Amino acid sequence: MKKALHTIKAIVTWFLMVASIGMMVFTIISVTTFDQPDRNLFGYKPFIVLSDSMSKTDFNAGDLVLIKEIDPSTLKEGDIIAYTSTDSDNYGETVTHKIRSLTTDANGNPGFITYGTTTNTDDETVVTHEYVLGKYETHIPKVGTFFQFLKTTPGYICCIFIPFMLLILIHLIDSIRLFRKYKSEQKAELQAERDEIAKERAESQKMMEELLKLKEQLGTTTIGVNSNDAATYTQGNDGEGNLSTDTKIF
Q: What start-end ranges are recorded for coiled-coil regions in this protein (predicted)?
């Protein structure tokens, strides 16, 4: 069970890490690249679709369309292009519509009549070559919607802040656990050293007691020998042929 929990924790940690880093990278790329006519991503210009003017046939609002730069003179009827609008109601915005026909503007410049397939209504002005940003290649559904959500406060909290906070919390818990383990091991080592010192002290004390006991035994033996020597007498001649018991030999 402990091993399984450890494995689950490792998987969750790696998932949060990858998700957090992915969200951060996606945010940086999207902010610096999406809807930037002068930027490209792997050779494509990404734009977020803001309306459903092409939802009937090709893509919906919130999708991310990828536009490939192309020579406008090679475009033909039926191609979908992204261009900078000069219409009065959305001047300067990037629009992705289908070419209905090739034409020229009032000054004789070549251009295109474009329209949205949902309304099937022609755009107000002719799109001349200088305003063409590129040809539509493909789209990624709902990426634009997610990016728009990510730019909001709830999106930032859910997709970036909370994952990073969970990672920090997990690492904080691990750090506390490792610190407690370290303190426990340190305490165990100190206790082991104390036990070893106490053991050595007990052995020294035992050895001292044995030495004192041995010294005591040696002292008793010496006293006994001295007593025997002091009681030894020699017999002498008293001048009359009798042995004298008053002479001591030391």
A: 183-217
The per-residue pLDDT of the chain, averaged, comes to 84
CATH of 38-143, one of 2.40.160.20, 3.40.50.150, 2.40.440.10, 2.10.109.10: 2.10.109.10
**pLDDT tens digits along 170-198:** 888 888 888 888 888 888 888 888 888 88
Taking the domains of the chain in order of start, what are their residue ranges?
1-33+152-221, 38-143
Of all residues in the chain, the percent with pLDDT exceeding 70 is 88
Rounded to two decimals, what is the model's pTM? 0.61
